[in-house]
Write a structure and sequence with these properties.
14 strands; alpha/beta; 364 residues
Length: 364
Amino acid sequence: MWLWLLLACWENPADAYGGPDVRAHCPLATTTRVDTADGATIALHHHPAVGPPVILVHGISSNHHFWDLDAEHSLADWLAARGHDAWLLDLRGHGDATVHRDGTPQLAGWRVDDYGRFDLAAAVDHVRACTGYDQVAFVGHSMGGMVGAIYAATGGADALSAVVFVGSPGTFSKDEPLMGLAAAGFAAGGTLLASIDSAPFGAMTADFSEGPLRITIQERLYNPANFEPATIDRMLRSIVSPMSRGEMAHFSRMIRDERFRSWDRSVDYLDALADVTVPALLVVGMADRIAPPAWVEAYAPAFGGPVAVFHAGTESGLVADYGHLDLGLGERAPTEIFPRIDAWLDRYPPKKDGRAAPFVHTGP
């Protein structure tokens, strides 16, 4: 999130994450650290259910609590209650994955490519091994959707039954306000720092939520019409995680190139999706100032399989237009956004033993 980058403070990436305990509202939830093929470590938070598996991935400078803030704001719990076996991924350097399993810090320097090629690949392999399913469903917010696109475009498509990209940019434009400044900020961070911990700015943003900067901050990160003040405060204090040097440098390059490409520019991920036939649902926030609608809709002609676009806003009969963070954490997301995600996952269930496994909801 661009404003968080510009005002963030540096902190040791080995510092333990102090977010809310998922077990407080999901007593069956467990957390497992998994090693990746390139020597990094991810964290998987499991909200168990009897049905097919789905992996949920957070965005930049975020963590798994985006999909599991509390009992009232949790896509993970919402899906698990309806029979989906939910697994929330903390990418390396985020949330509970700032350290290796032995407690040593994860060294910064990885690119966005590594999240898709190694982190998500390790998560998919782990979940398939644990559940016995040949495939998993995937839901990604913001950069999390990009991670899913990278994985699908670099050989992982057969392991995915369906994908949902929520406010995920598939392209960039320097004409958007703050994009030039964002690219410069990412470039500076990617050159000068090992990592940036944006958690202090998350807390600062929460403190400003009733002050003179309220409108400026809110219009960039979320639509306040979709939130109660208490949710905003907890969200801004809980979902923020560090950004690494390589990650920032990669985003700076993509913004300047106005292309969603690999770090070495050898792969244009939108072009590579032409051979990917995984059914894709694009959830577009009509008031999103971080990933504007056109950026998300860029995936629609790129995928080689079924694609649906849902415009999250008044034009679709919703109470208000959705901003970037509202798409997963807004007060009405469980009634206006989550059912669309659920319906897409139900329509394209994962395969088990080579066949599409039958699935019936076990909850409301």
